[in-house]
Amino acid sequence: MSELFAIGTAICIALSSMLSAELAGRVGVVTLTRWRQLVVATTMVALTTVLGGWGGLQPWHLFWLAVSAVTGIIIAETALNAAIFGIGPRSTMLVFSLNAPFAAVLGVVLLGERLGPIQIGGITLVVAGVMLAVLYGGPRDRRIGAAPAEGRRRGVIFGLISAAGQAAGALTAQPVMADHVSPFAAMAVRCAVAAGFFLALGAIRREVIAGGFSWHAFGLAAASALIGSGLGMLLMMAALAQGSVAVVSTLAAMTPVAVLPMVWWRTRRAPPWQGWAGAVMAVGGTALIFLA
Description:
It is built from 11 helices and no strands. By secondary structure, it is mainly α. It has one domain. Helix 1 runs antiparallel to helix 8 (215-242), helix 1 (2-21) packs parallel to helix 9 (245-252) and helix 3 (59-96) packs across helix 10 (255-267). The longest helix has 38 residues, at 59-96.
């Protein structure tokens, strides 16, 4: 069951990116991120309260979880949504797969960890797969959020920022999770910090909800948040509770492959072969990093 839960995580994240892409040109990046965080924070705080997971939190936990929220949510998720709007979900999920190599490199720089030849090979394979798919795959998913050619470079940059932010967010949360804090409580604190930031930003800009609010757009954003950050993370935790961390992490990182048939169905056009090849290479490289 752990393997099925991990694959379910990848599918949820891929579907979440597809739903977010539907809002391109209809709401702003910051507005989308604010809506998503409000929904996820409310859900996670409620779950943590019901499950009684607040008891293990210490003041130093809150500090590192706040730092993790800044890098892993406020920066990473905003950049992720900007990338989805710029280059579409297919290319974004590929670029985002670089968070595994980024995490490995940050572990070396900040924690003094060592990379073996298998991990170095995995990093090389991920980078090569992303370059193949993004540079030569073509903007085939333009109908679901991808910008014209002049916006692709900016979208890739945002994708890189998101991957780096996600890696930094995971790294800064690691000491807290190693102290056996409830995953629900950790997620609740991170999301609450991010939601508070975006609410304050909205108040400053006098758009706490958002100008041009529509229930249809908010519904898509809420569904994206609940499927990706809600159900996806719950499946991930269920998988980790039963299976190997390396295997589960590898299967959950199959998002670049999982999103391809969704793009195919939505656009009625098959992704180019470079997209398939790059996605398989990225997942294979991620597997090497985790399994090593």
